[in-house]
Design brief:
CATH superfamily: Heme oxygenase-like
Number of helices: 8
CATH architecture: Up-down Bundle
Strand content: under 5%
Order of helices and strands: HHHHHHHH
Low-confidence stretches: 1-5, 174-179
Largest sheet: none
Number of strands: 0
CATH class: Mainly Alpha
Helix content: 55-70%
Radius of gyration: 16 Å
CATH topology: Heme Oxygenase, Chain A
Length: 179
């Protein structure tokens, strides 16, 4: 498949609009020790709070919440309650949520390598297959009505809401990890 120079233009707009939100979330999760059962459990618990809120609204094609629940159960812990998320009905908002969720898969393989041997990694190992990230970007571009700034504004709000959920989920876990 030949890559069009226009593929991903909505992703780029979302990336630019949410760069600060993304850095904040990355910073909250950067210090989690994935090579210790307690640190990894805290990391997965935070992600479960966020994913439990986001996936029912975003409806991703390949949900990861069951994989995350399996990893948490393997660590002897129950799934936490999801954080509340406003369920807005706009398609742009839903695509913004999907942008953040699908983007979070990109670092999964790298993070999975940091997990201690013997700990479960189904969630982090659920990365995009060959061509799936490009296909997502094409679907995102196709979903955006041509020239509809309101749709893009809704998508930005959805992406920001997703990052906000991850930030809220990660903040208490960071305190627990660092004492």
């Amino acid at each position: 498949m030949k890559k069009s120079p226009h593929v991903g233009h909505i992703r780029l707009a979302l990336r630019d609009a949410t760069a600060g939100n993304h850095r904040q979330v990355d910073g909250l999760f950067a210090d989690h020790s994935l090579d210790s059962p307690d640190g990894y459990r805290a990391f997965l618990t935070a992600h479960a709070r966020a994913l439990g809120a986001l996936e029912p609204v975003a409806c991703p094609a390949a949900p990861r919440l069951p994989l995350l629940a399996s990893d948490i159960a393997a660590l002897g812990q129950a799934m936490p309650e999801p954080l509340p998320l406003e369920d807005r009905s706009g398609e742009g908002y839903r695509w913004g949520l999907l942008y953040a969720l699908e983007g979070s898969r990109l670092g999964g393989a790298m993070l999975a390598r940091k997990v201690a041997p013997g700990l479960p990694t189904a969630y982090l190992s659920a990365v995009h297959g060959k061509g799936e990230w490009i296909a997502f970007q094409q679907a995102l571009d196709s979903a955006a009505p041509q020239g509809d700034d309101a749709w893009l504004d809704d998508a930005v709000e959805g992406a920001r809401a997703a990052f906000s959920i991850f930030a809220r989920a990660g903040a208490p876990e960071q305190a627990a990890v660092h004492g």
